[in-house]
What does this fold into?
Amino acid sequence: MNINELLDSEKGNKRFMLGNEAAVRGVLESGVSLAATYPGTPSSEIGDILFKIAKEANIYFEFSSNEKVAIEVAASAASTGLRTFSFMKHVGVNVAADSFMSSAYIGIEGSFLVLVADDPSTFSSQNEQDTRHFARQANIPLFEPSNPQEIKDFIHYAYDVSDKFNIPVIIRTTTRVSHMRGIVETDEYTKNTKTYGEFKDTGLHVPVPEAARVMHKNLVEKIRNIREISNESPLNKIIDNGANLGIIASGGAYNYVADVVNQNNLKVNILKIGFSHPYPEQLVKKFLEDNDEVLVVEEVDPINEIETLAIAGKYNINTKIHGKCDETLPEIFEYTPDIIFNSLQKLVSFEDKRNKANEESEIALPSRPATLCSGCPHRASYYAAREAVNSLNLDIESIHPSDIGCYTLGIAPPYKMASYLMSMGASVGTSCGFSKSTTQQPIISFIGDSTFFHAGIPPLINAVHNKNRFTLVILDNRITAMTGGQTNPGIPIDGMGDEAPAISIGALVKSIGIEFVKEINPLNVKEMIEVYKEALSYDGVSVIIAKYPCNLINKQQIRERNYRIVVDQDKCVHCNICVNKLACPSINEIDGKITIDQVCNKCAVCTEVCPTNAIHKE
Amino acid sequence: MVYNIYICGIGGQGIIKTSIVIGETAIHKDMNVVMSEIHGMSQRGGVVSTELKIGEDKSPIIQDGGADLILSFEPVEALRALHKSNTDSIIVTNISPVLPSTINQQDVDYPEIDDIISELESKVSKVYAIDANKIAENAGHPLSMNMAMLGAATAISTFPLEKEDVIKIMKENLPPKSIEINLKAFDEGYNSCK
It folds into this structure.
């Protein structure tokens, strides 16, 4: 489906939409006026699309500097009466949590929806946290769609709840729902006409302690009232087949249940939960009373299950409840049809009619780990760092705090330039800790440009004020690369595609009093190694800004390289520095010969690394 | 009935576009279809796979052993996908290898292509091994490789969609100036498996 179809699709049209595309269509149909995000997989495509269509759809869109700012932008805009939208990956909620909590207390005058994409099995994340906990902590209603059609439809429903109760709402997806494609029948869409609202100081927007107590009381009452809606909601429905076994299923996990039940003609009752917080107590109570046994199926944590157990306890219902808590289902990772099949076989007997899967290959397979691309400037930065550190001939390890981005791949040999990682921006804060708790170990930490703007600045201020010693390398590849290439505050383009002031990392770093600041093109590796050595001997906080654009984003720079890289086999002394130390994916040793492949992006770092000039430009 | 297609290869080979064409063709023929795609690290040399289910299923994941057809854009990736196949499955694989970027650092060598094909043949009912890279080059552009693979899939007897319908949707999904080359690649891929 091309992007224009998202806008052009008429009522009743059927489109093959990605979950993230359906989310965009959903907010457009709902009449959203403003959207703000910080990119994070598996929700990134939503921002990529809004970036392209915001003007045509007459909405305001921005890539905020982090998720907390995105929530603040969207929540405050909603307080002027607009319908607003924010979206992020699950760990983004941690960053946003402080303001997100308050937004529920303060409430909103318009309507405010946040889509959060969880990542069971951590396809592209550092943890498997479950956003449904946050909804309970913050008293925010939460919905769990199972497929792209439901993402779109639930967005309408969730906005209505937000509107009616002046409360933020969450749509919680998982990777398999956001990155699932399915048929979506679109509803009517008309271009947004509401660009501005008006803020009125009602005296109810400032949660000072006295007011916060009132706000919390009101919020709890709202949730109690919304629970009544949840009990009656068409998003929570019982499919009664007169069986003794019931299954409560939500989100992507529901799909596996539906398929296994259908394919094996199992006689079970199903309660599909789409509106999962506040949990529909009366509906679940009825379901428990109607079944002898109930299996609760959900990804990741046993949240609906524990709610179900609580309802059984509260009403003294003896129905046996299975799920993660009694290990009928696994407690971690995403589910699959096979996992649900095997779990259901523990509860009901039915024949295994599945095709027997072939054994894995008997031939040993080479692995295909993700690596820095051919010509990636980060490779040059890491190669030079490794060379500089090795040149010190230390008998103690160097420490390499790293951060979230493509450059985390620097963990791999031969660079081994990521030894400690927590979260966005943590490379800088953890460097402070290592600086205070070690003496002889050199500390070189790495952070990307977008991550630096996101959460790297406050800890760098901390580093200067508390007199730390470490070298921070800001890998400025002029884009938010890992999530597919979004703009950030260092780029002279904003989320609307308009020209915007670009924030200078060098000027910013100098302004907080850092004296050792070197900006360098890392492709000049020999010079880069010398800069590292100088920084390592500096007593204090030193910053190296390794500035060169990502090849994936700036393809023009590759086209402008009107040469190719070749190997003079007569000059090659088989030192294998290019293969073993630079480790560029375009350089291979085949039948004893060093060869450069077709994918080579001609960064020419190998020509600098080669000691005999056997590798050269031609 | 559900027809399950597992498509695999390397980032940048056009796997997702190919899968979308199949899915949209199914919708065009009023069939239900769901699909799962794994994004993320793919542009950085990693494995890419999609799972397409044409029929009544709701979940986009194919059970182990459940693939009717495996369409592999790279020979080693066909071996890696074997757990999705059963003895009745059909495999269409490209025989042009893409060496893992870290192959020189690994203990395992890239297997011989003949060994890969005989291993595949020992496990499933039929293997179509085609040089889709060569077909694409002959058609006029290496990037038309994915449409050569799509043509090959369309020729498989169990494939639930007709050639004319696939071509119609393929044309809608491609830049107009590339259609001639892609059509040539598609036809050549189709003929290689017919």
Summary: Residues 209-232 of chain A form the longest helix (24 residues). Chain A touches chain B through 66 residues (CB under 8 Å). Chain A has 21 helices and 22 strands. The mean pLDDT of chain A is 96.
